[in-house]
Amino acid sequence: MNAILASELPGPGDPARTRMTAAYCRDETLAMDELVAQASLPPTERDLVLARATELVARVRAKASQQTAVESFMRQYDLSSEEGVLLMCVAEALLRIPDKDTADKLIADKLGEADWEKHLGKSDSVLVNAGTWGLMLTGKFINLGEDTRRNFAGALRRLVGRSGEPVIRLAVRQAMRIMGHQFVMGRSIKEALDRANEKENRIYRYSYDMLGEAALTQPDAERYMQAYRDAIGALGARGPFKNVLDAPSISIKLSALHPRYEVAKRARVHAELTAKLLELAQLASRNGICLTVDAEEADRLELSLDVIAAVHADPSLDGYQGFGLAVQAYQKRAPFVVDWLAQQAQKIGRRFCVRLVKGAYWDSEVKRAQEGGHAGYPVYTRKPNTDVSYLACAKKLFDHGDVFYPAFATHNAHTIAAIHHMARGRPFEFQRLHGMGTDLYAEVMGPKNLDVPCRVYAPVGSHEDLLPYLVRRLLENGANTSFVNRIVDESVPIKDLVADPVEVVRANTIKPHPRIPQPIDLYESADSSQRRKNSMGVNFGNDNELRALAEAVAKAPTNWAATPLVPGAKSCEALQDVTNPADRREKIGAKQQSDQATIERALTNAHAAQPAWDALPAASRATILENAADLLEQRRAQFIALCVREAGKTLAAAVSEVREAADMCRYYAAMARKLMGKPEALTGPTGESNEISLHGRGVFVCISPWNFPLAIFTGQVAAALAAGNSVIAKPADQTVLIGYHAVKLLHEAGVPEAVLQFVPGKGSMIGNTLLTKPEVAGVCMTGSTETAWTINRTLAARNAQIAALIAETGGQNALIADSSALPEQLVKDAIASAFDSAGQRCSAARVLFVQEDIADKVIAMLSGAMDELKVGDPALLSTDVGPVIDEPSRKSLADHAARMDKEAKLIKQVQLGPDCANGTFLAPRAYELKSLSQLTHEVFGPILHVIRWKANELDKVIDAINATGFGLTLGIHSRIDSTIAHISQRAKVGNCYVNRNQIGAVVGVQPFGGEGLSGTGPKAGGPHYLLRFVTERTLTINTTAAGGNASLLTLGE
User: Fold this and answer.
1) Nearest to 4 by CA among 538, 558, 578, 736
2) 659, 373 in Cβ contact below 8 A?
3) Distance in angstroms (rounded) separating the CA atoms of residues 512 and 829
4) What is the C-alpha separation between 512 and 529, in angstroms, rounded?
5) What is the mean pLDDT of residues 50-69?
6) DSSP track, 570-588
């Protein structure tokens, strides 16, 4: 048995590394207090910097009328305008859509949406007006008629109607070629080198970046590796160079070289990626050029530093002074990264070339921390804070001396002036992006100006590869706060543009952004009656958090026991062994089922205890549930261990399970306060009062599934309790231990033992003993549709109160992708949706409908991505897919796979690891089907079925999905809003997810539940869920009965 998590932890770091890791999400206020002190200049020096920056901006503005046509176009259609966004959206999708019908649909969808006419006449550049007219329809300049000027949107629609979308399609492609030339150095490395050799470009140094998506498959990674080899050879062939710094350089993205470049795959990355990077560094050394490793997402920073340090220290690079990396100043660890790099360089005796950048993934870093429930943000939440960090890091780079050759990537005049000042003659270079900042650097370079070399970061690749890069550049370029966007905007005073960020930050009384809540406070800004804490997650990119989790899990008990929890009863059933689904030889505990007497006693207890619980104020019940959420987080190590050992959950899934259970407790507590805190007054005639109040129905039986044995179990119980009901909780037979410990925790939080009782047992005994009794007021269950039918019939057959039934049942969940979908994103989301949790999610994708125009590409990519999946012990962080829950489940899935082997085409079957021999594992696989009719039932496991569809068959696809009768989840991948709207309106499903995976519904954010054969509603984790657990009572009082209407008579005038 592997110890949970421990075997894959990194060793202890040196003190500099420890300080770096500790700063991952450091307090922003404390960080700024330190960095402001480090970045500050004496007043006289600060004034010199401001004067230099002011001069730079003034000179750029004086020449603004000379800007190129493309720069005019960019300024009009920056990404702060809806039109700019739509233009890029159309262009990006068009370049990726292989079939004309879908391309035309996209154009018709997008071009009617925006306010194009507001750009007419806004610029002196003829290109902007011609570009506005049909988005550069043919690349020719067109004079606009008076009618067109008056009603541009109508004219554009008429044009589309007259010329048809194909004309527009050609036009946007033409626009993209012009844009591509602006932002991409060349389509090939040769073309880029030739362009760099043109007279006006020779003053710059260049760093070439081979454009492309991150590698999703091994063939992708090999293709990128060869492209880097070829590019380095081509650069070297232009030599010899005076020295390595004067030579052109290559920029490398580690994500392009390895399909699983992530912390969970640490051992693979160290072994495989280090060797690849070393080969490229050796090649760069032989060719006399620099090699820089680009910075990527925050969670991969320290993993990348391990790889970079190992390559940097390799003896084969002795004498090579051109190896380096980019450091992102927006990361809170940045100053500590600089210190650690200096230590490494001193130890090896070889410098690092460091490119200091501000950082390009800010929005996604903020979202990732919020979604993950992290302790804080890895990045600063205000731009001036990043600017201060940049200056402090720059000072460190200079102060560490010749262990660094620093390069400063910036388009900001104040930053340029400040860096030049603090350099004090020490060697460095500036860097800028190709296509951006040209006019500013014209005032920087050369002996008459600051006389500092500048290297251009020059992307190389096809227009198809350009778009993700280009959109990122345009977002930076067009942001309202962007220096590039504001430098020629005369309405922005120069003093505002060149303000010293140190002084700006000093003046901010609150250092973090006041409108970006900390991850834990994400829901605190909601309606006051629904405020709650975000659940606490684990940042798997933070080695300190991993070590702490491993340590806590190691202290959790390893031999659990579970018995019924019914006051006054003791079951006579024998104890049964509980074993680990990943290795059935391993006993992890024992469980005891309820006998009939125990079940009957539970009903007596619950019926007697419910009135007092219902009479307790809703706020008091809510407080108890919030206590339970806090306890869940305090004890999460134990529940994570239970989820891994008893339910076969991977570590990431186990963490999510605990988070969802805590979210359920807090959300239903907040809803109880809102809905049941006090009666609601109703408007009526004068002289009487009317109010309606909500009360618990009575005794609820909660029947939970094994696939979410903590989250759904806790959610059902918490909702029923919040609403004032007593609860008899029946766990799934496969996950009794988890349910037992959840109930014990709720008792500890304050729920009386008779109000919440734990009754494990066979479904048939529970049904016959409990559900036939008149005292049962309602049943909440998650399970199969067949089980829900049986429960419904049992409840209906009673001559008793009509019980409430809340059922969440099965689904035949589909994912529909048209040809405008981004294949890489589609495949990532399909893999997650189909194989996460071994496909044992209610929401999991079972069928991928992919438009035939992209089907071959998507299927090949899917096959390659599945090769990268690791099936094995879920106690290891590196495991992607764990076991299925038990042998009957495995056998049922294997039987289905055997049928598919005969009736369908196998796309891929993942290899099982050596540690799968004694567990209930099923190899994930994908099949191509001819028709949805080949699936006769829900396949609850890691099997994905792929079906091609033609562009004109969308309604047939939707109707086929609807015809199954199930309606739980649906995924849509499309760039066309009208297609998304059409599918979401026509499809009869409870949860629809667009351009993302279709699993992991978040409590209070994506309420979960289906329709048709997939459930009764209302949705779990949603605002209406508690209402199904309550009964309503109206109270009417005649307030004039005592004689006269005093309130009316005393109104006065």
Assistant:
1) 558
2) yes
3) 33
4) 26
5) 83
6) ---PPEEEEEETTEEEEEE
- Read off the DSSP letter of residue 1008: B
pLDDT greater at residue 212 or residue 519: 519
Q: How far apart are CA 582 and CA 579, in angstroms?
A: 9
In 3-state terms, the chain is what percent helix, strand and coil (to 5)? 50, 15, 35
665 is catalytic: no
Query: Is the CB of residue 310 less than 8 Å from the CB of residue 274?
Result: yes
Q: What is the DSSP letter of 124?
A: S
Residue written as token pair 């540690």 = 915
Give per-residue pLDDT as tens, 760-814: 999 999 999 999 999 999 999 999 999 999 999 999 999 999 999 999 999 999 9
Token pair in block for residue 95: 């370049």
Q: Using CA atoms, how far apart are residues 855 and 524, in angstroms rounded to an integer?
A: 44
Alpha helices in 184-300 (DSSP H): 189-196, 218-237, 254-257, 266-268, 274-286
Distance CA 513, CA 387 (A): 14
Q: Is pLDDT of 480 > 50?
A: no
Angle 112-115-121 from CA coordinates, rounded to 5°:
125
Q: Is residue 683 within a helix (H) or strand (E), and if so which, with residue range? A: none
Question: Per-residue DSSP letters for 182-204?
Answer: HH-SBSSHHHHHHHHTSGGGTTS
Query: If 0-12 CB within 10 Å is exposed, 13-18 middle and 19+ buried, where does residue 313 land?
Result: middle
8 Å CB contact between 501 and 419:
no
Report the distance separating Cα 862 and Cα 824, nearest Å. Answer: 9
Distances (CA, A) of 490 to 59, 124, 416: 13, 15, 21
For residue 582, report the phi and psi dihedrals to the nearest 5 degrees: -80, -20
Residue 968 · residue 782 · CB < 8 Å: no
pLDDT tens track for 857-884: 999 999 999 999 999 999 999 999 999 9
Q: Is 842 a catalytic residue?
A: yes
Q: How far is CA 139 from CA 129, 134, 153, 635, in A?
A: 12, 10, 20, 64
User: pLDDT digit string (tens) for 72-105?
Assistant: 555 555 444 444 545 555 665 666 778 878 877 7
Q: How many other CB atoms sit within 10 Å of the CB of residue 371?
A: 15
- Helix axis angle for 711-722 and 651-676, nearest 10°, is 10
857 C-beta neighbours (distance < 10 Å), count: 15
Q: Is the pLDDT of residue 147 over 70?
A: no
Structure-token pair, residue 408: 């400063």
What's the whole-number mean pLDDT along residues 824-852?
Answer: 97
Per-position DSSP letters for 63-75, written without gaps between them: TGGG--HHHHHHH
Omega before residue 427 within 30° of 0, cis = no
Q: Tell how strand 680-682 and strand 688-696 pair up.
A: antiparallel
Which of the residues 290, 353, 842, 916 is marked catalytic?
842
Query: Which of 272, 302, 443, 808 is an active site residue?
Result: 808
What pTM did the predictor assign?
A: 0.93
- For residue 152, the model assigns a pLDDT of 44
Q: Which residues contact 850 (CB under 8 A, 6 or more apart)?
A: 817, 826, 858, 859, 946, 947, 948, 949
CA 11 – CA 27 distance, rounded (Å): 26
pLDDT at 178: 61
Burial (0-12, 13-18, 19+ Cβ within 10 Å), 298: buried
Q: Note the pLDDT of residue 102.
A: 83
What is the identity of the amino acid at 40? S
Q: Cβ-count burial of 328 within 10 angstroms (0-12 exposed, 13-18 middle, 19+ buried)?
A: buried
Q: Tell me the average pLDDT across 470-493.
A: 63
Taking the alpha carbons at both ends of the chain, their separation in whole angstroms is: 84
Phi-psi region of 455 (alpha: psi -120 to 50; beta: other; left: phi over 0): beta
Q: Which of 663, 659, 778 is nearest to 718 (CA)?
A: 663
User: What are the residues facing 328 on neighbouring strands?
Assistant: 357
The Cα–Cα gap between 960 and 967 comes to 12
Tokens describing residue 132:
């506005």
